[in-house]
Amino acid sequence: MPAASPLRAAVEVLPAESELSAAARFTVADTETVLPGHYPGFPIFPGVCLVECARQGAEATLPPQAKGATLAAVESTRFTGPVFPGDQVDIAMAWKRTPAGDWQMRAQLSTGRGPAAGVRLRYAAPAGDAPAAGGEEAA
Amino acid sequence: MIGQRDIRARLPHRFPMLLVDRVVDVVPGERLVALKAVTCNEPWYEPLGADTPEEDFAYPASLLVESWCQSAGVLATWDDPNPDVLDGQVMLFGGMTGVEFHRPVLPGEVLEHRVRLDRKVDDTLLFEGETRSAGETVMTVGRIVMAFRPAAALRPATA
């Protein structure tokens, strides 16, 4: 059973292109839990639910070295087009490791009408997995 | 104290996406403090059971952000409320930068969203602030961008 989430349906992860790039998709059914309240009589898929799509896509495609990393920040998000019930949201993701040892995931989300959002998430490396930069730590 | 009546006169959001319970302090055009009680009766918790790990009951980060942004929305529309998304000027969430999560939030916690208006440029408002719970900062918000646009901007373009 997945963790608590505003998404009712699952984010579908597509076969990986490589360890650091991935793709997923999410179909916004008109039965999504959030829609009756966002907004009554005029359902729009909330921007934060696009961030949630990116988060679920990220957590399903964490690079092997990033296992156990947890969401530390939404570094940036830009919403560029509305998403409505019936839309399929395509999620293109790219991973990279930051100099500090965290993991950063950039996602571009789009629908058939064009770009919907750009999302950059940061995952904190699990404790004890900092890169060997300082070298002064005791064993 | 400003309750649901005044909040619903300002925000178009409704169950289960109205995520502001109460406003406890407001300086119009400047800052606002709002409360949101997290409860296991929110629908996101419905599929979870006794075999669900405790950490999976964390309040979704996306909804934490949404709740904070709705508090900003109450401040943004304080003097000129429009709870109708089909008419007039509607509030759009343009984006955010530097939103950091410091610890998970669990059902039973009462979140205190602190929202400050940083800048207003034409119809675009920039907010910053944080969320506290039980004396701890659980989220910091570097910046969120909110834009007011004609309601027609939300409709799908007809080809």
From TrEMBL, chain A:
InterPro entries tied to this protein: ApeI-like, HotDog_dom_sf
Q: Which residues form the ApeI dehydratase-like domain?
A: 19-99
Gene3D superfamilies associated with the record: Hotdog Thioesterase
Superkingdom as given in the UniProt entry: Bacteria
Q: Which Pfam families match?
A: ApeI-like
Spell out the protein name for this chain. Answer: ApeI dehydratase-like domain-containing protein
Species name? Streptomyces antimicrobicus
From TrEMBL, chain B:
Report whether Transferase shows up as a keyword of the record: no
Keyword annotations = Lyase
Signal peptide location:
none
Q: Which family does it belong to?
A: Belongs to the thioester dehydratase family. FabZ subfamily.
Q: What is this protein called?
A: Beta-hydroxyacyl-ACP dehydratase
Specify the species. Streptomyces antimicrobicus
